[in-house]
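Task: sequence design from structure.
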C-alpha cells in the first residue's frame, strides 16, 4: 500500500517541507509550521496548499497579526 506524503506548511509564506523533516519553524519568517488544518485536523497533502481540501479553511487565518502561529 502506498503511503501518502504529508507536509508541514508555513501559513504566512507557504513554504512547505515534508512532515518527516525536523523543521518546526519557517526559516523565512519564524512562524510555526502547520502540520494539519487548524480547523478540522486534515493532513496537508500538497506542498502547494493555501486552503484545506476537506473543510476549505484558509491557512493564513491561523497566523495572528504580527505574531507566531498558535496552531500545530
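Answer:
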Amino acid at each position: 500500500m502506498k503511503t501518502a506524503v504529508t507536509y508541514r506548511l508555513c501559513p504566512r509564506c507557504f513554504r512547505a517541507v515534508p512532515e518527516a523533516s525536523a523543521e518546526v519553524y519557517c526559516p523565512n519568517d519564524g512562524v510555526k509550521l502547520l502540520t494539519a488544518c487548524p480547523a478540522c485536523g486534515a493532513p496537508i497533502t500538497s506542498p502547494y496548499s493555501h486552503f484545506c481540501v476537506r473543510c476549505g479553511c484558509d491557512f493564513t487565518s491561523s497566523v495572528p497579526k504580527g505574531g507566531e502561529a498558535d496552531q500545530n
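Residues 36 and 42 are 5 Å apart (CA to CA).
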